[in-house]
Amino acid sequence: MLEAINGFLSGKLLIVLVVGLGTYFTIKTRFVQLRYFLHMFRVFKDSLTSSSAQISSFQALMLSLAGRVGAGNIAGVGVAVTMGGPGAVFWMWVTALVGMATTLMECSLAQLYKRKDASGQFYGGPSFYIEYGLNKRWLGVLMAIFLIVTFGFSFNGLQSHAVTHSLQNAFGIDPTHSGIVLAVVLGLVFVGGIKRIAKVADLLVPVKTLAYVAVTLYVIVLQIDHVPMMLLTIIKSAFGLDQAFGGLIGSAIVMGVKRGVFANEAGLGSAPNVAAVADVRHPISQGVVQAFSVFFDTFVICTCTALLILLSGFYTAGFAGDGLILTQNSLAAVVGDWGRIFISAALALFVFTSILYNYYLGENNLKFILGESRKVLLGYRAVVLALILWGSMEDLSTVFAFADITMTLSALVNLIALTLLCKVGLRLLADYDKQRKAGVAEPVLTARAFQDVNIDQGIWAHQPPGPVDNPAVVVSHR
Question: What domains are there in the chain, each with its CATH number?
Answer without folding.
Answer: 2-410 (1.20.1730)
